[in-house]
Amino acid sequence: CIDGLQGFPDAIKTVFPETRIQLCIIHQIRNTMKYIAYKDSKAFMKDLKRVYGAESEEIAFRNLEAMKDSWKKYRAVVENWQMKWENLSTYFSYGAQIRRLIYTTNTLEGFNRQLRKVTKNKAVFPNDEALRKTLYLTTRDITEKWSMPYRDWGETYGQFIIEFGDRASIA
To answer: Which of 2, 64, 70, 160 pairs with 121 at a CA distance of 20 to 30 A?
Structure first.
């Protein structure tokens, strides 16, 4: 899952050619809602949830098409979803457990925010090794706080093994 930075999908595919790109749904929603008038936002979000929360890609796309008709005044916003549909709908090809895990980048963003906080507070690192050590120790501290296991991890991991085979091994 990526947050829509230009060139990122191509860079990822260059290094990992089998990668399936999924744009972050949360970022897409946030960007979308910037263009929706407050008085329309609740109803628009209700319809939009029928798209990203649908049971299948076919139902989701049909709901998106319906939005194009019912929200003519926001046609450009709906067309933006259609234009990005290939990378917004990737998660529909997975089971519910994997979907819940990959549709947003929030966990990764929180992790990166904590790393930035540490590196921003120290204006200069004497050398690259000092920076590496700081990032390593910070990563260790952050991950030690991850005491709660991912809900239904066994089932989710099983779906990863079925979907990706040896690419999903923990070793």
So the answer is: 2
Given this model, what pLDDT does residue 157 score? 85
**In 3D, which of 128, 40, 112, 109 has the Cα closest to residue 78?**
40
Please give the span between the terminal C-alpha atoms of the chain, in angstroms, as a whole number.
22
SS3 of residue 100 by DSSP: helix
Q: Are 64 and 71 in contact (CB under 8 A)?
A: no
pLDDT band at 97 (very low <50, low <70, confident <90, very high): confident
Give the sign of the dihedral formed by CA 46, CA 52, CA 54, CA 59: positive
Please name which of 60, 106, 107, 105 lies closest in space to residue 84, comparing C-alpha atoms.
Answer: 60
CA distances from 70 to 20, 73, 78, 133 (A): 31, 9, 10, 55
Residues 6+ apart with CB under 8 A from 98: 91, 156, 159, 160, 163
Per-residue confidence (pLDDT) for residue 45, from 0 to 100 = 98
Higher pLDDT residue, 154 or 85? Answer: 85
DSSP H/E element including 19:
none
**Hunting for tokens 């999924």 — which residue is that?**
22
Note the pTM of the prediction, 2 decimals.
0.71
